[in-house]
C-alpha cells in the first residue's frame, strides 16, 4: 500500500456550540477544560470542537505538568490537541507574539511558500537515506497498538529516476541475499503496510499546484523546532486531487480527495510539518481511512542545506470480513548522504536509531564512505 497520511477526525460544530462561542468569550477555566476532557474521553469526535474553542477563547490558567498529563491521558495522547493547548499557553503568556497575522499578511505568506515549495520540488538533490520503520496494528480505531516488526530500508533518490528502495533488515536480521532494489520493498518484507514516495517534497507540492484548486484557511499559530509558524488548514476535492490509495502490489486503486494542515515557517516560507487525511474514499473500497503526518528538518547534503523529512507516521484502516484493522508505520529518517558510487551501505548499530519504546533495538545500517 502506498500512501502517507495520518487519520484525523473532523467534526461539525453543533448549533448550540456555535452559540456558546458567540456568547462566552472569556478564556477557558481549568474547571471547564477538565470537564471537556472527560467528555472527550467518552466522545472522541468532539476533539476538533474543543480545539476550535481553545483557539477562540484561549485559556485563563497556567498549563501545569499535571494538566498536561490529564490532557494526554484523556485524549489518547493526541498530538494535535496537545499542540493546541501549548500554543494557547504561549498566547496567554505573550499575546502579541502568538497573534495571527492579518488576512493579507497570511495570504502573502501562503503565496511565498507556494512559490518556494514548487521551486524546491524541482531542485531536489540526489541522495541516500536510511528509513527505520516500526510497524504495528490495532483493532479498529482503538489505538491499542500491537507491535508487528521493525524494518530497515535504504532509499536512494535521483531526480531523473525517483525513489529506489532496498530492504536491509527485518527485526535486526539481514534481509535475504536475493533482495533487489526497486520501487517497492513490500514484496520482500513480511506482510503488512508499506509506503513510498510521498514522504519527500512531492506531497506538499501537489497541494500547492494550481490544478489542485486547494482551499486554504489560516487557523492558528504554533512553534515547531523553535520556529514560529502559522497553521493553515487545506482541502482538495477528489476531482482535483492526484492522491491515490492502492491495495497490494499492482492491486486495485482509487483516487481520493484530502484535507489536512500545514505548519509554515513565518520567516523562511517553508512547511515544517504536514498532515494529510484521505477523503471521499469510495464506500466499497477496502481501505476506509488513510492519513499521514510528516515532520521536516534541515539536513546538509553535498555542502547545501535541504528541507527533508526526519519523521513520519502513516495510518491506514482496512475492513476485514469480521473487523477493521488499523496499521501504523512510524518512520525515522537517518543519515542523509549524497547519492553516488562513493557511498555504500554497511551494517552497524546506531545509538540514535533506538526506538524510544524498544527494549532490544535491532541492528541497523549506516551509510558511510568506504576507505580511499
- The N- and C-terminal alpha carbons lie at a distance of 40 Å
Mean pLDDT: 81
Largest sheet: 11 strands, antiparallel
Note the total helix count.
Answer: 7
Overall structural class, as computed from helix and strand content, comes to: alpha+beta
Number of strands: 15
Shape: globular
- Please identify the oligomeric state: single chain
- Estimate what percentage of residues fall within beta strands: 35-45%
- Give the radius of gyration: 21 Å
Secondary-structure element sequence?
Answer: HHHHHHEEEEHEEEEEEEEEEE
Helix share, percent: 10-25%
Strand order of the largest sheet: 4-3-2-1-13-12-11-10-9-6-5
* Poorly predicted residue ranges: 1-23, 341-372
Can you offer a commentary on this structure?
By secondary structure, the protein is α+β, with helices and mostly antiparallel strands. It has helices at residues 15-23, 30-42, 47-57, 65-74, 79-93, 103-121, 202-208; strands at 127-139, 146-158, 162-170, 173-174, 215-224, 227-236, 244-246, 253-255, 257-265, 271-279, 287-301, 304-319, 324-338, 344-348, 364-368. The strands form three sheets. It has an eleven-stranded antiparallel β-sheet. Strands 7-8 form a two-stranded antiparallel sheet. Helix 3 runs parallel beside helix 5 and helix 6 (103-121) packs across helix 7. The longest helix is centred in the first third of the chain and has 19 residues, at 103-121. The chain is globular. Mean pLDDT is 81; it is low at 1-23 and 341-372.
